Amino acid sequence: MSETTVVEAKRFGVITCTPQARLREAAQRMTGDDISALVVVDSEGCLAGIITRTDLLRAHVEHEAWADRTVAETMSLDVVTIGLHAPLGEVEKLLLDLHIHRVVAVRPEGAKLRPMAVISAADLVYHMVKELEE
Hints:
The chain is built from five helices and six strands, in the order αβαββαβαββα. It has helices spanning about 5-10, 25-35, 55-60, 90-100, 120-134; strands spanning about 15, 35-40, 45-50, 80-85, 100-110, 110-120. A hairpin with a 5-residue loop joins β2 (about 35-40) and β3. The mean pLDDT is about 95.
């Protein structure tokens, strides 16, 4: 698996929201699509941040009117990214070293980054099992 690249292993497509979206919308989207994070994109569809279930929980605890707050008020700006041709072994190392659950695979577009896929620990475990079956 460590030789397999992100582009070989992952179906492309990212579930996104805008910084202006309300947290209620983000929570409904995550629940409806059974995902744990949304990639936040700007008006050009380029990476602006990420919002996770944990961010939503924190907002709920800290703000009575959490649902009406914007994603921009709660999202993380520091998104761990990886290139499309990086090996999955590099993704594993990032997840473990940084104690995170996902990275965003991106394609550079000038000074911006276009999100192409999200690779999670669950994706890596899937590939680990697939390798055992080969």
